[in-house]
């Protein structure tokens, strides 16, 4: 059998995966959060992007706004197992999406488990979306996207908004979404990035004794009718690949609009490794998909 060859960018990214995997499983949560806060204090964005920390009805969020952007908004819900906050790599990915879409991006810094278990994160995401509507942004000018736990929150936010009678955003995108919080990884299960011990901690922290069959925790058990068009990306080499496949099947069974792309060799949320050609390919596809569903815009002034 011919040995598999990787690009230099993929080799470099793969060298980081065992380090991240070990850290999730064995480095104390307080240490990781301290590191995230240190990195956030030093965040830098390109000169053509306005970065602003704001409160959206009490929910901490961060704006990333290209100077030529109109009133298209991407509401982005970050991943991190419901326990980790915004990372530098997420911010870099969001800047890229903002530039590709020429759209404002509002990243929700939702409350984190285990200090704030379900439904705190979901409530914050829904509040941030409703805040956008209160600012005068049309629902058809808003898209929602998220990775991993943020992919879960993307789906549950859409379900919550639909069930509450709120106007729905134009489209959604999920990157390696976690859709079934009732499942625990097998001891022998292998994922290049996600350690079974870490996964169990993430789930226990967010579920916190509630019934994980609740569709607003595990959207795989939810009603898939009446949702906006969805794009789902997952890696072929990740434990959550099957989650993405199940969601596609469930949406198609209701006649919904969904497209699933499985990227060969890729791992969980590979899109944050921006030097990877596969990351750029995925992000470009996401940007084009969301743009194609956002209605024609009108210009709004920059904040401040």
Blueprint of the fold:
Blueprint: H1 8-26, H2 29-40, E1 49-56, E2 59-66, E3 73-77, H3 88-101, E4 104-108, H4 120-134, E5 142-147, H5 149-164, E6 171-175, H6 196-207, E7 230-235, H7 241-253, E8 258-263, H8 277-293
CATH superfamily: Alpha/Beta hydrolase fold, catalytic domain
Tally of contiguous helical segments: 8
Q: Average pLDDT across residues?
A: 93
Q: Got a strand count? A: 8
The coarse silhouette is: globular
Number of domains: 1
Distance from N terminus to C terminus (CA atoms, Å) equals: 61 Å
**Portion of residues in helices?**
25-40%
- Tell me about the largest β-sheet: 8 strands, mixed
- Structural class, by secondary structure, is alpha/beta
Could you explain how this protein is built, in words?
The protein is an alpha/beta fold and 304 residues long. It has a single domain (19-293), classed as Rossmann fold, CATH 3.40.50.1820. The chain has helices at 8-26, 29-40, 88-101, 120-134, 149-164, 196-207, 241-253, 277-293; strands at residues 49-56, 59-66, 73-77, 104-108, 142-147, 171-175, 230-235, 258-263. Helix 1 (8-26) packs across helix 6 (196-207), helix 3 packs across helix 8 (277-293) and helix 4 packs across helix 5 (149-164). It is globular and about 45 Å long.
What descriptive keywords fit this protein?
304 residues; alpha/beta; Rossmann fold; 8-stranded mixed sheet; 8 helices; globular; disordered C terminus
